[in-house]
Amino acid sequence: MADKIGLTTTIPVEIVYAAGKIPVDLNNLFITCDAPGRLVDRAEQAGYPRNICGWIKGLYTTLLEQESLRQVIAVTQGDCSNTHALMETWQVAGVAVIPFAFPYDRDADLLRLQMEKLMQLLGADWEAVGRWKKRLDQVRKKAHEIDRLTWEAGVVDGQTNHLALVGCSDFNGDPDAYEAYLDGIIAEAARNSTQGLAGDRQAVRLAYVGVPPIVSDLYSYVESMGARVVFNEVQRQFAMPFDEDDIIEQYRRYTYPYSIFDRIDDINREVARRRVDGIIHYTQSFCYRQIEDIILRQRTAVPVLTLEGDRPGPLDARSRMRIDAFLDMLAR
After folding, report:
1. Domains along the chain?
2. pLDDT in tens, 64-108
3. pLDDT for residue 200 is more than 90
4. How far apart are CA 139 and CA 207, in angstroms?
5. Is 275 left (phi over 0), alpha (psi -120 to 50) or beta?
6. For the whole model, what pTM was predicted?
7. How far is the C-alpha of 157 from the C-alpha of 155, rounded, in Å?
8. 14-60 pLDDT per residue, tens
9. Does position 298 have pLDDT exceeding 90, yes or no?
10. Distance in angstroms (rounded) separating the CA atoms of residues 54 and 286
């Protein structure tokens, strides 16, 4: 069986597959386990401070509890600023860490250098990486179709859209099985369309921007209150929504690891195209990206509700009340 290798966020996953290894996005493993709150507690028992992001604490324990994962690719630039210390605590525990950095200024030469260093470490070459890009792009096209069926046809709900797109970070370690999973969603959407089961076209149309939520019921709650999430910003980026043959350019156009201004350009384009009424900006407690909320509010054309999450679990009462008030305001 091929070796598994952990990922702290989306990286050029084509390289991992080309090296004959199985990528495992630790974020997906953490948040979909039976008791993610327990993993956060265990990190705190190990000494992680209370005022550190819940995702970082969850990733720490998730990796240590997976005996099959003794190697991880950690993004040191373009993701969480706490990743450096996370890497070091893993190294103390005997985990081999491979750093990967997205250049802040999107410099093509530096990005190519990072990718070539990763290829050398894992034992991949450009020819194999190119083959895997073509294969993964076939799967990504189906995720893009699910995204279209969400915002244009209204036959896929926001949470299904979220799960289909966010999983493109590692394709659950099995692109063939992941493609079959996406085919199933598309087939269900076709049945919904045939039976006239499209979502309420009068519903408030929302964009969800920011890192994927640590809370478990955000999508089901907002949709139970008469709204529809028709745009999942970062998750869509994980699915590489570009018609791009050059893999270097593909990861330069990927907005998440670079400046907030690149992300806002993408957000504003999609908000207009998808006729979004309002934005929910999710921020994680103790994350530096909370500061970017200042800029996002100044540079977007529709109302923004900023929601903060801390630990895994359902929305708290205060957040539900704020969502209710926001949706009421948008519906008037």
Report:
1. 1-134+198-331 (3.40.50.11900)
2. 999 999 999 999 998 888 999 999 999 999 999 999 999 999 999
3. no
4. 24
5. left
6. 0.95
7. 7
8. 999 999 999 999 999 999 999 999 999 999 999 999 999 999 999 99
9. yes
10. 9
Q: Which tokens is 115 given?
A: 């990718």
Closest CA to 318 of 327, 328, 308: 308
Mean predicted lDDT score pLDDT of the chain: 95
In the sheet that holds 22-25, the strands lie side by side as 22-25, 4-7, 71-77, 96-101
Provide mean pLDDT across the span 127-146: 98
CB 245 within 8 A of CB 238: no
